[in-house]
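Note to self: the last two entries modelled the partners one at a time, which told us nothing about the interface. This time every component goes in together.
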Amino acid sequence: MTTTTAAPVPERVSARARRRAAQPGRRQSRNPWLLSAAGAVVALVFLAPYLVMLVGSFKSRPEILGVPPTYVPREWHPANYLSMWSTPETPLPYNLVSTLVISFCATALVLLAALPAAFYTARYRFPGRLAFLLLVLMTQMLQPTVLAAGLFREFVVVGIDDTWAAMILVNAAFNLSFAVWIMHSFFAGVPLEIEEAAVLDGASRLQTLRRITLPLVWPGIVTAIIFTFVACWNEFAASLVILTTDANQPLSVALTKFVGQYDSAWQYVFGVSVVAIVPVVVLFALIEKRLVAGLTAGGVK
Amino acid sequence: MTTSTAPRSRWRASAAAGPWLGPALALILAVVIFPAAYMVWVSTREISGFGVDRGGAGLENYRRLLRFEAIGQVLTNTVVWVVGVVLLTVFISLGLAQFLDKAFPGRQLVRLAVIVPWAASVVMTSTVFVYGLDPFYGIINRFLVDLHVLSEPYGFTQRPVSAFLVSMGIAVFVSLPFTTYTLLAGLQAIPGDVLEAAQVDGAGPAAAYRRVVLPMLRPALAVATIINIINVFNSLPILRTVTGSLPGYDADTTTTLTFKFIQADRQIGTASALSVVNFVLVLTVIAVYLRVVRPMRED
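The predicted structure of the combined assembly is written out below.
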């Protein structure tokens, strides 16, 4: 490298190179506002079903079943959001509690199991480490759907079918991999030198953990918590076969009971859906930048 | 690093990891490995409708599966479902990711809108489509009539074929966010100077895309495709919501059929046999994934 003599660079070329370096934003478009308009159309397509939901949740029952349907409610009924909790199809307040309890407990269990595993596999090499990580990766590819028959039979034999405990275990097990992978990559990204420097400065192990390591891996932990929580919140297949009592079922299963009826209370289905969807969309938006990393386990950099 | 350690200290190193990995391992063993093995065993037993084990059945559950009247239709549906949904999803996502990779005012808002079907419950998303496509009070039907796409409302969800196609559309819709985000991550990993070099060498946009972008996008494309195959194959809520109340098996895949065996017919033995077949298929896809993508490589 050092042998090549610095040839005199023509002034013109270096100027172009300098200009190029000054605008690193590649794919600069000629008319960004045209793209914004296209972007608005894309956004509208993705939001449309949820806008229909939102608008429908404010319609009266005769109006939502009326022919022809209305785009905008003639009368707005915000009281639907109160009356929807007492409907004969399913005990919705219990279903909401089921969703909440299962999601919170399963998320806690995931954290309890995944955090130490992610830390240890990121910091230490030991025989069986790769085998463990491979096993974790495989659980991500397997979903409760394909094991539903086995899980159902197992819980019947153990005697915990139709319990929250069973669903907490299922949700925790199948969301373990995302949590392990994302936290593993964050722990692996902490430079050991920083921790060693803190120890040299007289920090205790606990102080090092609290002041140095934790702030650095915190985004990974938050991502793991949110992703797991949202996945548990929306789980459907395993709950469908394992939870047979109406009051034990989560909202995802409960809402299917409205579909297929002659005159469904759609305004209530949509009201409950809005209540169930808005919080998880907000949570997902918070971790939007880091979603891909945990799901593809480093397959995409 | 410690390649020349004695076997005993190697064993000790693994044992030291025990407390850290123990909870995760216990969970995987109890809720993933055991039910998988147990399912294989149950598939060789005769289980009554009330859950009583009546003894060994050999391969009778598998034979019953082959004799099942709609098995040909269900297998065809499964292939159409997986291939159709995954191809469409990947194709649309390629364009969408390319679009979201451009800089324009409001891009972040568009990205957040795209994420919504990913966060939302698939059951709830499906119910809106069932409502919207109703031939009488359905708002999508009215919209299509107002646009003069249809001359009169159509009962999309009342016939197996159209209901199945609608379900495929919903499946594409809910698979787009993950796929687009994965491909977008892949696009953003392509260094800008590579593209610039292609342009300097005289490659037009089409040639640059085909010769430079697509090859560099291959890892992301492989991950997105394979994870989609598994997700779409395992998908239950959409078909269950849209076609669940239709009689017969004309709109069933092997996954929805498994759940009909478990729930409506209470045939755990046959359901287990079908699940074992599904399980083997998924394992094959995982093996391909591990070979093609090699996610474990560390650099």
